[in-house]
Amino acid sequence: MSKNKQTAGHKGACGSQKKKEGEGRSCIRYRCGLTNTIQDVLNQRPGWVEVKDDGEWDLNWCDVGWLRENFDHSYMEEHVRICHFRNHYELTRKNLMVKNLKRYRKTLEREAGRLEASKCDFFPCTFVLPSEYHIFVEEFKRSPGSTWIMKPVARSQGKGIFLFRKLKDIIDWRKDGSRSEEQKDEAQVESYVAQRYIENPYLIAGRKFDLRVYVLVTSYIALKAWLYRDGFARFSNTRFSLSSIDDQYVHLTNVAVQKTSPDYDPEKGCKWQMQQLRQYLTAKHGFETVQTLFKEIDNIFIRSLLSVQKTIINDKHCFELYGYDILLDQDLKPWLIEVNASPSLTASSQEDYDLKYRLLEDTLHIVDMEGRLTGKEKRVGGFDLMWNDGPVHTDVGLEALGSSCLVANTHLGCVNDRQKQLQQLLKPFPGQKRT
Amino acid sequence: MKYVATLHMPVPKMKSFMRFGMSVKGMQKTHSIRSLTARDSRNRFVTVRMRWFRTRTVMMRLFPMKLRRKMSTYRTIRTDCFMSDTQKVFPGGFVVIRLDTVLDPAVLQRSQMITENPVDITSVLMDESAELSVSVTQIVQRLKGTHLHSQLEKQAKECLHKPEIKLETLKDDVRRLLKASGWERKLQNAVYRELHILPPSGHPRAPPEHTKEPLEYMCKAQVNWEKRILKSLNSMCTELGIPLARKRPVPEQKELTNKWNEMGTDEPDLSKFRPVYAPKDFLEVLVGLRNPNNERSEDLTVRSHWGLIQVSLNVRDIPQMREMYPELGLTYGQLGIDDHTHVPPDLFESEHIHIGKKVVSEQDSAAAQQYSRQGCPTGLRAQLWSLILNTTNDPEDITHYEQLKARVINHDLLVDNLIYKDVKLTASNDDYYFVFEDYLYQVLLCFSRDTAVLEHFSYNSATPPKSCIQNSSGSEQCAMVYPPNGVIPFHGFSMYVAPLCFLYNEPSTLYRVFREMYIRYLFRLHSVSSHPSGIVSLCLQFERLLQTHLPQLFYHLREIGAQPLRIAFKWIVRAFSGYLSTDQLLLLWDRILGCDSLEIVAVLAAAVFAFRAENLMEVTSLASAEAVLADLSTLKVMPLLQIFLFATSV
What segment(s) does the record annotate as region Disordered (chain A) (predicted)? Predict the structure, then answer.
């Protein structure tokens, strides 16, 4: 019934009858450009219906390609939501992220001093090639013997990555590249970043790993960011040693690369849940150290988002789920490797599927198409509000710890009792009775 | 002290005894009396074993003339003997040994008759102080010659040069200094450790096999089981044409040295190898156990047991468990219940952590053990466990580990393949433990070469398997323990090590902790014995708990052919390693260490059944019952245990 009403809305846009805030719509039309976990989540949400092709939608879970082609041409109604920001790549392209971070660091240094700026030193020394080739060479020569990693800026899932220690390697590669591509056109040369390779990664039983953490941004002005409690550590299948520099399997922990490794056993899985990792680290290093580590990781999320706050075109229709890749070194210092705009939502195992399903469900809770939230929540399911135009602190535990010390409202790698929390928090879906 | 003596081993040719007034119904069937059981005023059990067959002369004086004559016609059954000086120590010709059998009313009745015997049992039992002094001598003996002993000596000598030492009060001064420098604590911890592995209240005169296992049918079952394992190992050896052991050629040694830290990347062809046995084979052995004394097939009573284990041992029921482990009670704070993992610590948790830090700084084994009963905080667990187990990581420990490593590199054993296979089958497939694959190889391979493990066979009912090894010349043969540590790994063995990888980074530390865990607790899970922490007792305890507190469920499962023990056995054998989520498993093992007993494992197994009882009542086959209990990774150990132990009406 309401569907008919809605289709009577403006042409070319996703119309809907204006309803009172909080009353909730009984039917939400979504468009989904991906065929993985997200589709299941959307599909199974009560009262939601899928629209195909050019149908009108209320929520669009599109890929970045669709965004590029269509975003500027479409008019969006007040309530409509889309899962990317217009220029998301400011944070998710490797070269732009570094550019923004460097600029942000400079501003901080100027305005708030060195100490404040040093809090941004969580990304490895990086140069964009070919444009920064000369500064790169200078830096390269200043630290002989160190290892560098080359990554194409726009490709993902570990494609086109290699390691090198000698300038000769990279010169050969440049020649190779230009010869094979035939086109002499400057614009056609693929941009790469050369990054100082972290040579002392934290190893667990001799294996390298990185962390995948999910951060949801619902607004850039004012910045509102949520941190998901779950996440995982991805292990490299082979053992780490710097001597095997040609073996890229050792160095890359992307599951996408791992899958092509000759001894990859899909049954085995190469992931630990964040909870397990946090426990492992606590068992080895004690509470305080681990708490500091996770605080530093929080710092990475916040600083990196702040660095692009002014660059990203804020749009109330947009939200974005970022997949952060973090690497730890032996001194338990976290490093930001990259940020993904469309984190792999294809599940590699049942456990992984469950995690992603929960994550996406909670994302939709926060996007709140149904109007079930008040907007003042500090926690929705597995998401904790990390930044709301300023740091967010927990309400509980103050009496125990003394009021002078504020505890950040982040619980990465902590118990995720989302079901219980959601039950308390959310009004039942329209037409659904609370059990 | 009043003793109630119990006869629990039958007499040969009972008829002859009946002449002496022992004509009790049901005894005609029995064949030999060899020991008595007594209960002292504190309800501890002691067995008094009669040794008349061998110490004929002694017995002669003890028994009436008629019997004496009769006795002399019997042949000695066992050849081991402690005849010559028995008389001196035990005027009655008895030896005190440990016992754990259950007292059946019928047996008790018999026992009363024995008390009427002319034998004065009290005189043969050692009193408290004698027992203590024996223990003291034993411990002193064991500690002599250890590294600690020489270090203490060295410290004491160094003390002498200090000005504050006076000749008049030399002894006290040295003692005070040793105390101040922390050496006394180290000695205390070492003594505490010895007390743990010391065969309980045995007598030094008792032959060694009595400390291993007092019940003969258990001994026999264990011996037969060992024979089977060895046979299967030998046949695999001949089938595959692989020697039990061989020296590695030098290039191979080098290769192994190089990939020591990444043995998991190697994928040898292991398809030919199969685990020597799996838990379910072992279960069959336990199911087949029978006490020749208790053939009760005719007189099935209300108390009869529905379970698979058909021997009676004294296992604790819920009220007794409550008494034994009050710290698990509802009024005590528990890690695993009263903490929310990482949310700002609540009052109990922060207090508990505070105490934990104190315990660690005091370096007191006994305190750490007591503390562990309420759970160890994640950040302190590694230190606390090392403290409880009194494992150190001194240079000499590291050297020892390096020696073991060298042995692995020098020689290739057939059991190595079994270890590889086991790790590949279990830990490598585990969602969590896969990371530790390399550590597991290192620890397990070194473990198999460690002859120090052999020591634990003095109180383990198992006996290290022997195998003939040809001399280098090839002419002579000699029997050698094989594998060198005497432990043949079975399917799932590596899961004993896996949880410890979570706590210790350094392979040598990890190794020490594992070895100590093994020789204190884990060996009991795969050898047939009557020990309260032994696998037989645990299985029996599990079945009794279920039968007493969930009779409907037990009956239902039994009717559909899903004997609960068939499902729970694999959990018990591995002390739940690989079944629970890691944090929960460590909380459980905290309690094992804290309570110095594996009984809690049996209780948890029963509690799991209780927790899923509703679903289990609906299943109609073994497979579906197994499905209900397939995934334990979501269970919370401590609430389950507490509810089962302290909130069940008894």
Answer: 1-20
CA distances to B354, B355, B594 from B358, in Å: 7, 5, 17
Question: A414 and B437 in contact by Cβ < 8 A?
Answer: no
How far apart, in whole angstroms, are the C-alpha atoms of residue A273 and residue A281? 13
* Beta strand ranges found along B248-324 (DSSP E): none
Distances (CA, A) of B591 to A279, B151, B343, B517: 19, 33, 24, 13
Q: What is the pLDDT of residues A278-306, one digit of tens each?
A: 999 999 998 889 999 999 999 999 999 99
The answer to whether the CB of A31 falls within 8 A of the CB of A43 is no
For residue A10, the model assigns a pLDDT of 40
pLDDT in tens, B456-487: 888 888 889 887 766 555 556 677 888 899 99
Judging contacts by C-beta atoms under 8 Å, the chain A residues touching residue B378 are 279, 282-283, 287
Kindly determine whether residue B582 and residue A279, on different chains, have CB atoms separated by under 8 Å: yes
Which residue stretches of chain B have pLDDT < 70?
1-131, 199-209, 294-304, 338-346, 469-477, 650
Residues shown for chain B: 650
Packing angle of the helix pair A287-308, A94-112 (nearest 10 deg): 100
DSSP state letter for B249: P
Nearest to B373 by CA among B525, B595, B557: B595
Spatial CA neighbour of B393 closest among B241, B509, B227: B509
**How large is the C-alpha radius of gyration of chain A?**
23
Give B381's contacts in chain A (Cβ within 8 Å): 283
Rg over CA atoms, chain B: 27
Interface mutation vs chain A, best among B258, B261, B340, B342, most A CBs within 10 Å: B342
ipTM here: 0.76
Report CB contact under 8 Å: A411, B261.
no
The pTM assigned to this predicted structure is 0.78
Within 8 A of A396 by CB-CB distance, chain B residues are: 343-344
A269 dihedral zone (left: phi>0; alpha: psi -120 to 50; beta): left
The dihedrals phi and psi of B311, each to the nearest 5 degrees, come to -110, 155
Task: Answer yes or no: is pLDDT of A364 > 50.
Answer: yes
Closest CA to B104 of B294, B283, B307, B339: B294
pLDDT of residue B40: 36
Q: Which residues of B touch A394 (CB under 8 A)?
A: 344
Alpha helices, H only, A254-321: 255-258, 274-285, 287-308
Average pLDDT of span A332-339 = 92
B575 burial level (CB within 10 Å; 0-12, 13-18, 19+): buried
